Amino acid sequence: MDWWWKPQLANDGLQGLIHDQGRIVSRSQLFAAGWTESQIRQPMRSRRWQTVHPGVYATHTGPIGYDEHLLAALLYAGPEAAWSHYTAAEQLGLLNRTATVPCT
């Protein structure tokens, strides 16, 4: 199975993909865009990016939102991963997240 984001990367480039993913990017996406290990390490060392999961980064230093966490989990889980149940319904607009996630 191939990654779902590859056509968008080819059409919109890395910056377009990162923008559409809420500033979340995976190591696989960076490599597919031609980045080297050294280029990936640089924003991490300078603390312009933060790790969400191993090999998945937020390209900003602020708080990571709910939708960013959801996408980061998909990227971390691999190309065969998918949302299920309530999360899938939320993402399709069938459920309102505030109705399914209790306030803490």
Descriptive account of the structure:
- With 104 residues, the protein is mostly helical.
- The protein has one domain.
- The chain is built from six helices and three strands.
- A three-stranded antiparallel sheet has the order 1-3-2.
- A hairpin with a 2-residue loop joins strand 2 and strand 3 (56-58).
- It is globular.
- It starts with 5 loop residues before the first helix and ends with a helix.
User: Order of strands across the biggest sheet?
Assistant: 1-3-2
N-to-C order of helices and strands? HEHHEEHHH
Query: Which regions have little confidence, pLDDT < 50, spanning 5+ residues?
Result: none
Structural class: mainly alpha
- What is the percent of helical residues? 40-55%
What is shown here, in short?
The protein is mainly alpha-helical. The protein has helices spanning 6-20, 27-32, 37-45, 66-77, 85-91, 97-100; strands at residues 24-26, 50-53, 56-58. It has a three-stranded antiparallel beta sheet with strand order 1-3-2.
